[in-house]
Design a protein that fits this description.
With 372 residues, the protein is mainly beta. The strands form six sheets. Strands 12, 14, 16, 18, 19 and 20 form a six-stranded mixed beta sheet that branches. The protein has a five-stranded mixed beta sheet with strand order 2-9-8-4-6, with no helix packed on it. The chain has a five-stranded antiparallel beta sheet with strand order 10-11-13-17-15, with no helix packed on it. The protein contains three helices and 29 strands. The radius of gyration is 30 Å and the shape is extended. The N and C termini lie far apart (63 Å). Helices cover 7% and strands 52% of the residues. A hairpin with a 6-residue loop joins strand 8 and strand 9.
Length: 372
């Protein structure tokens, strides 16, 4: 407390005397405006530019050390060097609007030699959208004239008792009516798919993907659906797929009295291994830092070579921890990795009743070791 009071007193004294610490000093480079308005510009009109003008209002020369842009669409054109007392510094900023329709609001930061605090600037404006081609609007050519806006959608979390829906736009670019049907390559059993049976030339619309999960469902974890569209009795060039993650319904959960899953580490490194090695194990700690019991809903692994030894339904009381074994089976790692000496990387997912982080991922890595 004594040190804190002393620090506060020194800060107050420095303020009264007009002494500002170096880290708090502002640059003496003063800009006439901190915002450059590019106005309304055409998306296909090429790069546009504006200028920022500043004056050195200090008592000594200043070096413009660096001008930082926060996006690849923006660039700053300037000559590094010193700005004398009373002199002006002008630099040009260029913005590329192509494929960036809508509002412009980008930040730029100027670093000078007389301050550790960057000078923040902004460019604003609006990009008028250009006319897009059918191929750009519907980039996925499925065959037979059918084009889609997308062929994949990640729904995110699907809570018990709720539904999720996504629409994927389509258009028939051919000069004939096409027939459309589908079959599942992979099915979660929880997806509903709505498609037109026939699509006239130039007709557009939406394919509707939806997931529904019953309120009392005991289904948890990743839901994956892969669909083959049949166009004029031919399989489409690309599959249509979707994913969702089934979790608890947290509408009535209380953040204060909720479980909180904390994993001791999220990356498990097994180092160098032989393909003939016996199963290897490491352990992590799973702790409940919440106020009510933590329940393990499901454990998933992206590879059969990795296993998290943790039973579904495992319950951890408030403030308690358990040790969890992570097992790697080198013999089940695909042979191509050993032939090409490529690193092995796999993900393990843990789904719990933690409302803040119902899904947590662990990354497991290993390096194939050449035989002597």
């Amino acid at each position: 407390m004594r040190h804190l009071l002393r620090h506060i007193s020194l800060v107050l004294l420095a303020t009264l005397l007009g002494i500002v610490p170096l880290w708090a000093q502002q640059s003496s480079l003063r800009f006439s405006s901190e915002v450059c308005d590019l106005g309304h510009i055409a998306e296909d009109g090429g790069c546009c530019s504006g200028t920022f003008k500043a004056t050195n209002c200090g008592q000594q020369s200043i070096e413009v050390v660096e001008i930082i842009t926060t996006c690849g669409c923006t660039s700053a054109i300037y000559t590094p060097g010193s700005v004398g007392v009373g002199e002006c510094f002008i630099f040009e900023v260029r913005y590329d609007p192509m494929n960036r329709p809508g509002r412009i609001d980008k930040s730029i930061f100027v670093r000078t030699s007389d301050s550790k605090t960057e000078i923040p600037l902004r460019i604003v404006g609006y990009v008028q959208p250009r006319q897009r081609s059918i191929d750009e609007i519907y980039p996925f050519d499925m065959g037979e004239g059918l084009r889609l806006r997308s062929n994949f959608h990640a729904f995110g979390y699907l809570e018990g008792g709720k539904s999720l829906e996504e629409r994927i736009g389509y258009v028939n670019t051919s000069d004939h009516t096409i027939s459309l049907s589908y079959k599942y390559k992979t099915s979660s059993g929880l997806m509903e798919l709505s498609i037109p049976q026939r699509i006239a030339p130039a007709e557009s619309g939406d394919i509707i993907l939806s997931y529904s999960l019953a309120d009392n469902s005991d289904i948890y974890g990743t839901l994956t659906d892969v669909i083959t569209l049949i166009i004029n009795n031919k399989e489409a060039r690309y599959s249509l797929s979707a994913q969702a993650i089934a979790i608890d319904n947290f509408d009535l959960s209380d953040d204060i009295s909720a479980p909180k899953a904390v994993i001791s580490k999220n990356i498990i490194k097994f180092g160098e291994i032989f393909d003939s090695s016996a199963p290897l194990t490491q352990s992590i700690t799973l702790r409940n830092e919440g106020a009510i019991p933590l329940v393990v809903r499901k454990v998933e692994s992206a590879s059969e070579a990795v296993e998290l030894i943790l039973e579904r339904g495992t319950t951890i009381a408030s403030g308690q921890s358990i040790e969890v074994c992570v097992r790697l089976k080198p013999q089940l790692i695909k042979s191509e990795l050993w032939e090409d000496m490529m690193p092995f990387v796999a993900q393990v997912r843990l789904i719990t009743n933690d409302p803040m982080r119902p899904l947590q991922s662990l990354k497991v890595t290993a390096l194939p070791k050449p035989k002597d």
